[in-house]
């Protein structure tokens, strides 16, 4: 009789094959219901660990379910709910209770701020409730991860590896996407990708807008070139996926060094290089600037003599990034010789960060100005209502961004929150971030001598890379992308479980 791990591999291979056929238009999109059915069967019949693994592995593969009413109804909404029900049923039978991390209460405050905004603002309740349900649905996955792991080290390592395998699928496919686009007519590639692949992953409405407007391109003196974005809706989300991959790669390198698995370590080094290249090839300038947060933190801890040995592996991806960026002209030349559409001028794009007249920068400044003066200042306490930023936008922004309203944001996660939830929501968000980073910093100060402990290193990588993410969030709202939010909560759940276990051990 085959073990469940064997059937988990078969499940993933079938899901990958089936998703590829659906996304490329070989078979009808209704086949996505078959994928959902198999996922639900896996959750029902697998033990909890393999059921959780099947859900995490499927994050890159979740497709929208074709239906006449909800264009963006994705399969993950049902699988996350099913997994949480399975877990709730098991703990009910065992008499256990669901536990929460110290920072979870501030997420509760955030939900209270949402409800207040929906009740007392002159708002579209439907938009707000849809966005609230979206977030709570993903939060269910976090609760399962945080409670199920319960500080069990080998179990935690297996979930980290599963998550990295899932992230790697997106990273590797990013290079496949770049390779395909390099040898095809750029216009036909663009239209095909929007019409078929984007439609199956994100719905008809997004596909129809991507046909004429998206963030897949870079512009330079050498013309228009495609950026790396994989199966995601934009290159910004892809860059964050690469950061998340680095969060898992670094501690696993330390673990496999201890276990003397040379072949695995070579694979991890290769994946680290691909992830750093992915950040560069994404052309996401906000992420490039956001790397200042890891640099400052690493420099601060180094000069404070905190955990220099522990921080060395954390600094490696940062150093690789700057080396690659320094050799950008050579990389660009190689890409141009490799394919007709490949490559963008990375240094020129990096230099445009400071050009306020550049089209993207000018548009971002304009929408920041509009958000502050027309949305936040008239509604400073309660905001305009959760999910309702798009409802107060002037029609001029649709023309300026060449996008439907529903895909326009404040281009800053913090301004998004402030505009929709007012000062109450912003206060709850900052309280959550303060609690999270304070706990992570306290953990680091207590365990920075544990330089050979891969789990300690994972928590440290989480803190460093979350600082990177939330610094980048000053200029973008990518964190609210569904895949990004899923991986964010998985990483948070893993780190919280490690944090809880080590604190309990210290107090024992």
Number of strands: 2
Provide the β-strand percentage band: under 5%
Radius of gyration based on Cα positions: 22 Å
Note the total helix count: 21
What does the main sheet amount to?
A: 2 strands, antiparallel
| Multimeric organization | single chain
Order of helices and strands: HHHHHHHHHEEHHHHHHHHHHHH
Helix content class: over 70%
Shape: globular
- Main-sheet strand order equals 1-2
By helix and strand content, what is the structural category? Answer: mainly alpha
Mean pLDDT: 87
Quickly count the domains. 2
Q: Overview of this structure, please?
A:
The structure is a single chain. With 508 residues, the chain is mostly helical. It folds into 2 domains: 1-97, no CATH class; 98-507, no CATH class. Helices cover 71% and strands 2% of the residues. The protein contains 21 helices and 2 strands. It has helices at residues 4-23, 32-45, 48-57, 76-94, 104-120, 125-149, 153-182, 186-202, 204-210, 235-258, 262-281, 285-290, 292-303, 308-326, 328-338, 346-351, 359-376, 395-401, 413-447, 454-472, 482-507; strands at residues 217-220, 223-226. Strands 1-2 form a two-stranded antiparallel ribbon. The mean pLDDT is 87.
